[in-house]
Design goal:
mainly alpha; elongated
């Protein structure tokens, strides 16, 4: 999971988050998934108690995450770590389907035809 989170952070170009930070937060149990990146503020007191984590670093991490909250749909989908499908492929797919259609297809297990 640490690798998946790091892959997402790298592909989303989220600044101020290193593999060391991810590893420490994962070992502490604060960061168990990509979604947890967006919940770090809820764990501020716990994170600030960790060795090497101070107010300044915590704020830099949160600022980095917040700087990449508004992205194109193909950037987000390309960063989630589906093997062999990246940002460029999702950009092509999204010329045929919109994000809502992709979600519906995935939720219903429907087969979609990409042209």
């Amino acid at each position: 999971m640490i690798g998946k989170i790091m892959n997402y952070v790298t592909k989303m170009s989220i600044p101020n988050i290193s593999i060391g930070i991810i590893t420490n937060l994962y070992k502490e149990g604060v960061l168990k998934s990509i979604e947890d990146l967006y919940r770090l503020e809820k764990h501020k007191k716990r994170i600030l108690l960790l060795e090497g984590f101070g107010e300044k670093l915590f704020n830099k991490i949160i600022d980095g995450i917040n700087s990449r909250k508004e992205v194109f749909d193909y950037q987000l989908l390309g960063a989630i770590g589906i093997p062999e499908i990246g940002e460029k492929m999702f950009k092509k797919i999204l010329t045929v389907y919109n994000i809502e259609e992709l979600i519906k297809i995935s939720e219903n297990g429907e087969k979609g035809k990409l042209t």
